[in-house]
Fold D-glycero-beta-D-manno-heptose 1-phosphate adenylyltransferase.
Amino acid sequence: MNTQIKTILEQFKGQRVLVIGDFILDVYLDGNCDRLAPEFNVPVLDITSQQYCLGGAANVAANLHALGSHVCYMSVLGQDHNAKIAIELLKEKGIDSICLHFTTLSPTLSKTRLSKDEQLLYRFDVGKKMELDQTVMDGFLKDLQKAYYNYDAVYIADYEKGTINHQVIHLLQEMQEKCFKPIAIDAKQYDKYKQLYPLIIKPNHQEALQILKEEPMEDRVEQAMGWSKSMHDLSNAKIVAFTLDSDGVVISRKDHPLFHYKVSNIKAQNVSGAGDTFLSAFLLAHISGATDADAVQIASIAASVSIQKKITASCSASELLFALLTQKGKILDAGSVAPCFSHILAEHKKVVFTNGCFDIFHSGHIQYLQQARSLGDILVVGINTDESVQRLKGPHRPVNTLEDRMEVLKGLSCIDYIIPFGTIGNDTPIDLIASIHPAIYVKGEDYKDEHLPEASLLESLGIEIIFLPYVPHQSTTKIIARVQKNDQVKLKKIS
């Protein structure tokens, strides 16, 4: 990750964004089915888990807040039980300012996804569109006028559910003429926002097809590039980001060359809200001074984080930083990456940590590392630097340089991340363990009766230590001796 991107991410914390749009409560029900209802002879789904999540514009607000910005969220709810759940969820997210209005004419909008063994079966919705009487709308407009001038940018999330009508758009236009602010818009129809001259709009492929009344082409990237002029003319947007799922993103600026950003293949757990995450990060990156190229990279990585979660979710600043730092491979820098582990991976994964010199790699190493990986979800390996190995093993070691040793470890599928360590006065992994805070620390059983310098730290942090069986006669020292003595030292074959 380059210094410029890191600087941009740091500036997210100072940004203030006003979010306006439709609230949707996302409900996830999962269960199993092993019987029929006797009265109707239909399958019975026994619910085993139920989760409530912020959807719609509320997910946008959650994303912007999680990325570090200060957020004011404005929307309309019904006067019902789901509204109470919505308020609690918004409070739990810690969103800075929540400005909600309530209508008696409509229920709080919700989408419930019903799954069996995590396989989606049905989605059923409550409410199609929010109905607001003029009294509620007047109060909403009054609060919008107060909030607008206190924020650096505006994000409009219009799902055509009734929160944003012509009165809201007209007021925004009046305020834009007095005090212009960058506006990001995610909507079904962009032409009605034309007079706002938005900074960014984000049509996905399906939405663009419907807006421009076109049929899909086999090459979606080429088709999106052909939409540039039409979409700019229709919306007056400065930047159009065509999101194309696995085909990446096409970024278009009026009178500028288009460019296509490719994305990595990632197994998606849930794509709901991915567009919210993308545009939230894209907007923050731009108002923090990012180029289009840096902004789309940041936004795409943020979206990739969110779709790997099972429910509608946001991408936090720590998760985004970690994803950007680790996108180029397994080898990480202790200073910038290690502190991210305790905030990110430990929340969702069981992290296993071990360390060593791994100088001349042999079958004992492989067996040891495979066993270590089987103990959890993520295996992090600390590896001593060349200078550290010299201090521990003597002036003739290591036989292989740090780069060569890490290259060997990179090729093992059981290893997720590799972090070099070791400084004058401290060749132990104590600092790494403190930063990563793994669930399990692994050593070979030959260390079982020795005093480990990291023992007191492991105990204080509640980290489990597991000693794995020692593979007899398998060691770097014995291999070196064998070479030096012309094969006089024999290695025992592992059965």
Notes: The mean pLDDT is 89.
